[in-house]
Write a structure and sequence with these properties.
The protein is α+β, with helices and mostly antiparallel strands. The chain contains nine helices and five strands. β4 and β5 form a beta hairpin.
Length: about 180
Amino acid sequence: MQAENPRGNFRNAIEAVLFASSEPLTVNDISKAFKIGEKITKKEIREVIDNLNSEYADSEKPFLIEEVAGGFRLITRPEYADYIKRIYQAQPSRLSKPALETLAIVAYRQPIIKADIESIRGVNVDGVIKSLLDKNLIKISGRKEVAGRPFEFSTTEKFLEYFGLGDIKGLPRIEELKQFSSLK
């Protein structure tokens, strides 16, 4: 094993760090893997990731590096999902229907206060809000400048990771959802 990491091995080191991580890593996270004397810029890290993805595609590797929730992670290509499902039981969604409904409202209307969520859903959402906060899918993002100064809620990076989104703009448009629901 080499003590030094010459420039040619930055690629391997970045690939190894992504492989070992169970969560998406930002470019800053990846840069922390290198010693102070090893000069690699954030731009170079992104270039290495792009080059790795090109190599994976050219050699038809069953995995790729995906950008999600502001970071990068190594994932299996979707066409291999059936093989993986045969070995690993898919985790059932741990979100109830009320939690998913509330999460959708927060995602599309953020920042939003609890009273507005309850007005849309027509039910009390105290328990659901607590559950979503505990799961780190939503966060308190501030206080609304109205009487009582209620908390405003927004989605988190964990939300983006959970749903495989690069950013909130990756959510389907409301019009697309309406078209989909009319197909049923």
